[in-house]
Amino acid sequence: MSDTLPANNAHHLRVIEALYSSHHGWLYAMLRKKLGNAMDAADLAQDTFTRILASPATVIEQPRAYLSCVAKGILINWYQRKALERAYLDALAQLPVQEVPAPELRLIVLETLHEIDAMLDTLAPLVKRAFLLSQIGGLKYHEIAEQLDVSLITVKRYMKQAFVQCLLLVE
Description:
The chain is mainly α. The protein is 78% helix and 0% strand.
């Protein structure tokens, strides 16, 4: 096995290294200003470069605009994750002390919630809405059809799509 990378991978690494050297400080400062937190800003800046490194090689004509776009997506995911964590902690705070799960179980539940949330984000908006109306709202399929103004067969198709995604998540 050779220690050298294919030419296109080596070039991609050099491009990312130059991008990192030239713009990491700027990206970190921008994220720190938005978040007001140095540690989270450092993590998200690193996540931005990790995502770029894992992506296919591309020509970057406007590095700061490109970094801003990638970082914005990561920042949105981060905010969603924090909101989910807050909602879960708020729900736990409503439980009687004896019903609050142990810290290990809380972590497992939170990780599972993040996985479910990520899975739901892969669904088309109406499929996601139908699934949530059914599973969280407790609505029957005909009620979902009325609320979404679609046919009953469409709701069944949406639910099938959502359940297939759930099964893929379990595997």
